Amino acid sequence: MSQSKVSQSKESLLASRVGELVANDFRTAHLFSQYGIDFCCGGGITLERAIKRFDADEAALLEALMAFETEGDKQQGLEQLPLPDLLNYIESTHHTFVREKAPLLIEYSEKMVRAHGENHNEIKPLAGWIRALVDDLMPHLMKEERILFPAILGLHNQVEMQNCFGHIGNPINAMQYEHDDALQIFEKIRELTNGLVPPAHACTTWRVCYASLAEFEADLKQHIYLENNILFPKALALTA
Ligand SMILES: [Fe+2]
Ligand SMILES: [Fe+2]
Predict the structure, then answer these.
(1) Separation of 93 CA from ligand 2 center, angstroms?
(2) I want to staple 14 with a disulfide (CB 3.0 to 4.6 A). Which of 48, 55, 95, 234 is the partner?
(3) Which residues, by Cβ under 5 Å, contact ligand 2, an ion?
């Protein structure tokens, strides 16, 4: 790649909105999480402004983003998926991920409580927040799968459906509140865990737990971004 092409690409990346970059290639969400950039609620600003606001390493981040571009296996832009495929994608990817990983987070944190809970004050509250997160997320997934997603599919297929919630905006609002709650729990977890950085003396389970939490947080933010910013606006547009 020529130098001019590289710098053009850097300029266009810096001028792109963070939310657009995530919608076009969801692998970038993991990257933005690693660099502390909020792509979920703060996705409306350009990458250049986000780098300044979150004090991220511009050169390293651009290099990583450009590596995605040159890999040539870009994930399909989810924004263009038809609604039924988008619903399937969310369930098969993100809901499955939560169900697979949540029990592991509980297992690791309970192990940490048994091994270190008496000597390290952050461990018991951490296990409590993980349990609260899982207890919130499991019924949330079920409400989406059993109530909201079928209703969205019904709207898409123009099928008259009996429901108990009135306008589709009502369950969408409820789900958005629950998304905010889950993200707030992660803020508490980050405060308790020094931003998910294990202390030097941490054992393997401790390190695996923090790494798994970081992975879980990145997936959850992608998941919520997809629902709040792509799925829900599409569903609401069907009622306009
Ligand atoms: Fe979901
Ligand atoms: Fe959700």
Answers:
(1) 13
(2) 48
(3) 175, 227
32 and 147 inside one domain: no
Rg (CA), the chain: 20
The DSSP symbol for 74 reads: P
pLDDT digits (tens, 9 = 90+) for 160-204: 877 788 899 999 999 999 999 999 999 999 999 999 999 998 889
Q: What does the alpha-carbon distance between residue 25 and residue 232 come to, in Å, rounded to a whole number?
A: 19
Query: What is the 227 CA–ligand 1 centroid distance (Å)?
Result: 7
Q: Give 153 Cα–ligand 1 centroid separation in angstroms.
A: 15
In angstroms, what is the span from residue 87 Cα to ligand 1's centroid?
9
CA of 223 to the centre of ligand 1 (A): 6
CB distance 149 to 91 below 8 Å:
yes
pLDDT in tens, 61-115: 998 888 877 654 444 578 888 999 999 999 999 999 999 999 999 999 999 999 9
* Amino acid 4: pLDDT: 41
Q: How far apart (Å, rounded) are the C-alpha atoms in residues 139 and 55? A: 36
| 232 shares a domain with 198 | yes
Q: pLDDT (tens digit, 9 = 90+) per residue, 109-161?
A: 999 999 999 999 999 999 999 999 999 999 999 999 999 999 999 999 998 87
Report which bound ligand comes closest to the CA of 180.
Answer: 2
Inform me whether the pLDDT recorded for 14 exceeds 70: yes
Neighbouring-strand partners of residue 17? 46
Verify that 64 and 116 share a domain, yes or no.
no
